[in-house]
Structures are given as structure tokens and as C-alpha cells.
């Protein structure tokens, strides 16, 4: 009656011994052995201070390199510069201004990463860079009246002019939907004819044409101002408490962004208006519901999210500069735009760094944002 048990023990011993015999489990000749390759972390070589710096774009006058902005690059590792105001100096003089900043790029300042050098070159009344070598760009409405193919060709020319001046990012195109009947009473967009038109089809086709033309010349574009500024009756630059009571999370305005995301948009700017039908508790740039909930999760955007100006816009002055930067990053923004008043940049950067060093969960947000910014920079030609 004990023989089955004995047989079982013998068989088990044979199996165990087989595992010790050389070649017992040798794979057939020719079978490859592959080891998964781990993708290097693009921010592994950056200090926390340098990672934080990548999350800021600081303004300087377009006609001169301001010392406060130069210091932001060298002392606080800021990874982006914005040319503000209006300049009629032309391409060569603008290139000289830009080179004052790009000449600062190094291992100690930006971790060796290139700078994002941006401006507002939309057209019409919103064209920062003018003068010799820069075309007079028509307004958004005038661009919207062009055939998309013609606009793309023109945008490629405008992009080449920016590139020759050292600029690699244009905070354009505007994709806000502004109803024709209320355009004149829409201060931030309609009053300046910044919109391509009053219907989603025109906006999407012409935004695509503008982006593709700029991209052909090596210019990154930033579509704006999510989830839309076409229904507000005041300008967030000059007024506090600006609120949109029309736009919803899954509506026509956000649908335009969804189409642009599907068409390859890489960077989106979020507005500082309050959207009462999405999250009435805070400006969109401070709202995790708007930035992470709607833009990231609902629309599936995995690119770079930039705030509208957080330095001098009246809409956000009730918050301290430090709180503006921290709230924006907690909401899900990747780049904090400090364009109008660069003097507040040190307070913002220092506050974000201090929080990242003391709060591990916030540090993870900083790291994730820095990875997206660095990935975008890797696409620069």
C-alpha cells in the first residue's frame, strides 16, 4: 500500500535533480533572450530647483532684455521667456534681445535645456513683434476669411520670421468661440477681432492651418484660452471677478479644443475667468475641476498646459504671487506664465520650490509637469 507514495517521492526527486543538471532547461538554439529597456527619465539629471524652473515663463520687454528676467534664468533656472509689449525694432534687433537669454543656457542655469522663447504674434491688434523683417499680420477675423491653404502658407512665412528672430513659440492661435451677435461686447476677444469666426468649423479649420504653417517653420503654438473667453463681458486683464455663465464642460466651446487635441495640438493655455457651470469656486487656472477634470481626463489632453498671465492680470491680484503659482500647479498647470510683471517671478519660483521640498505629493506634481515641458522642448527644431 506504500508503493504509490514511494513512486511519487522518486519522481519528485528526479524532477528536482533535473533542475540541477546543466542544460536541463536550456532554451532551443536561436531563441533570443530579451531584456526590457527602461526609458530614461528626462528629468533625472535636474535638481529640484531646475525642475521647478522649467515650470515658469517670465516676461521681458520685447525691445530689451530686462535684468529681472535675466536673473530669473541664471538664479532661478527659469526655462521660458516671453517677449511682451510692442516692438518695431525688426528681426535683427529682436534676435539680439533673444540671444541675451539663450546665451545663458547651461548646466548650472537651465540644466542644459533650451529656453522656450515665446511671444503673442496673433495678428491685427495683437502682434508684439513688428518692423523690418516682420510682416503685418491680419487680424483673426481676416485670417478666418482666407482659404485654409492660403492661411497655412502665410503662417509658415510668419513662423520663419519668428524663427529668424530666435523665437520658437507663439502664444496663438485663438480658438475662442464668440457669437457674432455679441462679439462687440466681448472685450478680450471680439472687440479686437481676435477670433477666426463665429462657427466651430471655421475656427477649427483655420486654427489647424495656422498651427501647421507655424510648425513647418519650427514654431510651437499654444491654442487659447480654454475653456473659452467668447461669452464673458469683461477682460480678465483689467477686471476682477470675470465670470462665464454659459460655457459647460461638454459643450460647443470645449468641443473645439477636443478637435484641436485630436489634430495634434501640443500646448493649451487656460484662461483666468471663472466658469460657473463647471466650477464657480475659482478661476479656471486654479481649478482642478477645469484643468485636470475636464482638460486632462474628459478631453484626454496629455500635452503641456500653460496658465494665462498670473503676474499682473487684475482677475488674480486677490491672491498673493506665491499662492497663484502654487494653486496653478496644484490644479494641473505645467507652465506658469509671468508675463506682465516679471518682478513677482522670484516670489513665485521660491514658493513653489519650498513647497516641493517639503511636500512629497506636490513634488510629484512638479516632476510630472517638468517631464511634459522637457518632452515639448525635445520637439524643438
Label this structure with key terms.
381 residues; alpha/beta; 6-stranded parallel sheet; 3-stranded parallel sheet; globular; disordered N terminus
Short overview:
This protein is α/β, with parallel strands linked by helices and 381 residues long. It has helices at residues 3-18, 48-53, 67-76, 91-102, 140-144, 148-164, 200-216, 252-262, 276-279, 288-298, 321-331, 345-358, 360-377; strands at 56-61, 80-84, 116-119, 121-123, 126-127, 169-170, 220-221, 223-226, 243-244, 267-270, 274-275, 304-307, 336-338.
Characterization of the model:
With 381 residues, the chain is of the alpha/beta class. 40% of the residues lie in helices and 11% in strands. The chain contains 13 helices and 13 strands. The longest helix has 18 residues. It is globular, with a radius of gyration of 26 Å.
Determine Rg (CA atoms, Å).
26 Å
Number of strands: 13
Helix content: 25-40%
Main beta-sheet annotation: 6 strands, parallel
Mean pLDDT: 92
Structural class: alpha/beta
- Supply the number of helical segments: 13
Oligomer: single chain
N/C terminus separation: 81 Å
* Order of strands, widest sheet: 7-6-3-2-1-13
SSE topology:
Blueprint: H1 3-18, H2 48-53, E1 56-61, H3 67-76, E2 80-84, H4 91-102, E3 116-119, E4 121-123, E5 126-127, H5 140-144, H6 148-164, E6 169-170, H7 200-216, E7 220-221, E8 223-226, E9 243-244, H8 252-262, E10 267-270, E11 274-275, H9 276-279, H10 288-298, E12 304-307, H11 321-331, E13 336-338, H12 345-358, H13 360-377
Parallel strand pairs: 1-2, 1-13, 2-3, 3-6, 6-7, 8-10, 9-11, 10-12
Antiparallel strand pairs: 4-5
Helix pairs in contact: 6-7, 7-8, 11-12, 12-13
Amino acid at each position: 500500500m506504500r508503493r504509490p507514495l514511494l513512486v511519487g517521492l522518486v519522481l519528485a526527486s528526479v524532477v528536482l535533480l533535473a533542475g540541477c543538471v546543466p542544460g536541463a532547461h536550456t532554451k532551443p538554439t536561436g531563441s533570443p533572450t530579451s531584456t526590457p529597456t527602461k526609458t530614461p527619465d528626462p528629468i533625472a539629471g535636474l535638481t529640484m530647483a531646475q525642475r521647478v524652473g522649467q515650470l515658469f515663463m517670465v516676461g521681458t520687454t520685447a525691445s530689451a532684455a530686462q535684468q529681472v528676467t535675466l536673473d530669473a534664468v541664471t538664479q532661478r533656472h527659469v526655462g521660458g521667456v516671453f517677449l511682451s509689449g510692442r516692438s518695431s525694432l525688426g528681426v535683427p534687433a529682436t534676435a539680439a534681445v533673444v540671444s541675451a537669454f539663450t546665451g545663458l543656457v547651461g548646466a548650472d542655469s537651465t540644466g542644459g535645456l533650451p529656453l522656450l522663447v515665446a511671444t503673442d504674434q496673433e495678428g491685427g491688434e495683437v502682434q508684439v513683434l513688428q518692423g523690418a523683417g516682420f510682416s503685418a499680420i491680419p487680424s483673426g477675423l481676416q485670417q478666418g476669411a482666407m482659404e485654409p491653404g492660403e492661411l497655412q502658407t502665410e503662417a509658415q512665412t510668419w513662423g520663419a520670421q519668428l524663427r529668424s528672430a530666435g523665437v520658437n513659440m507663439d502664444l496663438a492661435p485663438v480658438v475662442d468661440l464668440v457669437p457674432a451677435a455679441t462679439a462687440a461686447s466681448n472685450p478680450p476677444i471680439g472687440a479686437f477681432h481676435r477670433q477666426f469666426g463665429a462657427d466651430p468649423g471655421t475656427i477649427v479649420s483655420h486654427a489647424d492651418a495656422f498651427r501647421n504653417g507655424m510648425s513647418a517653420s519650427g514654431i510651437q503654438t499654444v491654442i487659447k484660452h480654454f475653456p473659452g473667453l467668447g461669452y464673458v463681458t469683461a477682460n480678465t486683464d483689467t477686471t476682477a471677478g470675470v465670470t462665464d455663465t454659459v460655457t459647460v464642460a461638454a459643450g460647443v466651446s470645449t468641443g473645439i479644443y477636443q478637435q484641436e487635441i485630436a489634430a495634434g495640438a501640443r500646448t493649451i493655455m487656460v484662461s483666468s475667468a471663472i466658469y460657473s457651470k463647471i466650477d464657480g469656486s475659482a478661476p479656471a487656472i486654479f481649478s482642478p475641476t477645469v484643468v485636470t477634470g475636464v482638460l486632462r481626463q474628459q478631453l484626454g489632453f496629455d500635452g503641456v498646459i500653460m496658465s494665462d498671465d498670473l503676474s499682473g492680470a487684475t482677475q488674480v491680484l486677490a491672491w498673493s504671487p506665491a499662492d497663484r503659482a502654487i494653486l496653478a500647479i496644484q490644479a494641473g498647470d505645467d507652465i506658469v506664465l509671468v508675463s506682465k510683471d516679471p518682478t513677482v517671478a522670484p516670489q513665485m519660483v521660491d514658493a513653489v520650490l519650498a513647497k516641493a521640498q517639503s511636500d512629497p505629493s506636490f513634488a510629484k506634481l512638479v516632476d510630472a509637469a517638468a517631464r511634459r515641458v522637457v518632452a515639448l522642448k525635445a520637439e524643438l527644431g
